[in-house]
Hints:
CATH class of the largest domain in chain A: Alpha Beta
CATH topology of chain B: MetI-like fold
Shape of chain B: globular
Largest sheet of chain A: 5 strands, mixed
Number of strands of chain B: 0
Shape of chain A: globular
Oligomer: heterodimer
CATH superfamily of the largest domain in chain A: Periplasmic binding protein-like II
Number of domains of chain B: 1
Amino acid sequence: MRKALAFMLVVVLLSSIGTAGAEDASKIEIVVFAAASMTEALQRIAGQYQAVAPNVTLTFNFDSSGTLQTQIEEGAYADVFISASQKQMDALDASAGIDKNPDAQDFLLQGSRFDLLTNTVVLIVPEGSDKGITSFADAGTDKVDLIALGNSDVPVGQYAQEIFAFLGFWDQLNTAGKVTFASNVKEVLSQVAQAAVDCGVVYVSDAATGTGITVAANAPAGSHKPVNYPAAVLSNTMQPEAARAFLYYLKGEEATGVFTEIGFAIPQR
Amino acid sequence: MDLFPLVNSLRVAIISTALTFLIGIWAAHGVTRLPIWLKGVLDSVLTLPLVLPPTVVGFFLLKTISPKAPLGAFFLQAFDIKLTMVWYSAVFATTIVSFPLMYRTARGSFEQLDPAWEACAQTMGLRKRFIFWRIKLPNCKAGLLAGTVLAFARALGEYGATTMVTGYIPGRTATIATTVYQLWREGNDGLALQWVMIDLVISLAVLVAINLLELRGGAARARSEA
């Protein structure tokens, strides 16, 4: 019995070594770090991209832009980075100036950065909520006991803070202990869907693909900086051509169709 | 410096340790008296939270006490009590993850007792209750105390399941672990480090306490056997 087990273990180990070297040389893997709000859109586009470039495998890492920025700074390998706000991209861009990039970091391939998408910030409530929440201003009233927001490291959390500061009650929200801070926009979405909170602030693209939630209101005009999703190739990419090709595809008609269907918009470029 | 996370972490850990102490001893004593086949199955189930990643425990908890989940909805409708996103949600999470520590240590202690003592007591006509409280428990003191301190240490250090069921509301549900994570995420390394130091001091104190208890227990045993 023991000999049989030992033999099987050796076979498994040897076969894994064997297959490791037998990779197809023409297969390329592009690692894409993208804001969590792009999860559904990019997964759909990846399916389409298979037909366009069958030898390219796309590997995604979806998380809050702040988390992704930290991972890149700490040495994580990625070919492409798409952030949900300029702040995180600026911090990695050598040409962004000392106030936006205080540590003078240089992680982007110069000339590859452009604005890919814009999005709308919305207030969502759990499906079937009977609290009568119909606007961002309601968060400052007794109708809302608990609101889920991204923390200051998450772009949608930054936009939410700007909106409530614009409406004049950001500080009160905090001192009243009404805010629970989440690590990325999908966490906010799931907390609202569970009805663990009365409302939350996400993007319209998340609301469109999320279940168990309803959009209660759009952000008031002029209440926050424009939501821009910059995209760029990273400077230590091992396949710059394939990375650029993918970003170029994202600007194209097929990808744009998917993005706009989900609720993103295309900025002036 | 807002000390709420410290107060909250301590109260959650103390409450869940008290619960774990009671339930753990009761379960351990109960399991030692079961038939062998049932003992094995139950033992595995009760030890499971020790092996599962805390996020898995958090997932199962959410599927039970979330406002739209069976237990959560019941408590909300019947008593208007929220089970998630409140400070005591952490107690559910920490009790579940620290339970196996108390349970295993207690079971080990009970099984180490000389079965002859129980048999002897029974021949003298002593009742089960008396045997448990006045013979078994006192002789397992060292083990039970060690289990309690371990459970407390685990409860204090719990993060994964806690963050899933209590979220992070500064001043209402923040614990030391969730606070350090959020401060690091926001880039506030200075304040995060202060909390890390506080946590280190408390954790070291707990471990020193375990060691002292073990020493005393060992010395007492040596004296009684001499």
